[in-house]
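hey team, just a heads up i'm posting the complex here instead of the shared drive bc the drive is being weird again. everything in one block, sequence lines first with there labels, then the predicted structure for the whole assembly after. its two chains so it's a bit long, scroll down
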Amino acid sequence: MKRLLLAAIAATLAVGAAAQQPNPRDAVPDKMPFDLPYGPPISLDRAQAAINAAVAESKKRGWKLNVAMVDSGANLVAFARMDGAQIGSIQIAEHKARAAAKYRRETKIFESGVQEGNLHYLLTLDDVIASRGGIPIVDNGQLVGAIGCSGGTGSQDEVVCKAGADAVMKR
Amino acid sequence: MKQRPMLTLEDCKKISAAAEGEARRNNWNVCIAILDDGGHLLHLARMDGATPANARIAVAKGRTAAETRRSTANWQERVAKRIELLRMPEVTPVQGGVPIVVEGTCVGAVGVSGVQSHEDEQIAAAGIKALG
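-- predicted structure starts here --
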């Protein structure tokens, strides 16, 4: 009992000591992060062109994926499930695209934040998916939509997603 | 083991393009969703000018038709006579969802949303017709 009490006191002290350390998240940057304006919604033609490019890349590698495109309001515009692609990944492909549009960044940033940055709070933010394979489509500095892929490993999803995004991105 | 036909992505593209053509000929902006026989999304195209709600509703109509193996127009008629059918879970009883039947088997469905519901159905039927 006595030993237990001592351990409890030691733990309390340790927490107190940790509180003395500066928290990197207390820093206040001057600039807004990912300050990308939401532009007009991507057209169906371009959305389908991105999906076709992604499907072609996936087919070339013998992979079966789901590919989703959303507009600048994060709403679904076009979708394709390749023959034999995993049905559990239908919603994930759309979720990745939606999160990339809503948060104006690649979903890989959330994955890295959780994995390498230990930023577990990211998982508590609304509609986040901490898995790579979601990329915003940017037109002349404006976000017009986003593409999301799912069905393989995160790395496979990302390769295909990038092929789709590159096909329609105007830089 | 029983064998059954299955929609491919190429089939979906054919259906979607024909449905889109029918909508375009009439100057209608709609969303066209194609689902498999389990009600899982296979293909979706939201034409420029169709609303975000159209995307959700097209999928809901298509899922109803795919899972129940009957058109949502049929559901609409039945609900008109038996209001208690509105409590059927996950059913969208509004015309515009049409099952795709191949060799007597339901292989999926097309759901359309964007114009009047009988026009939505016209578009869905045009798409399925292209399958041959």
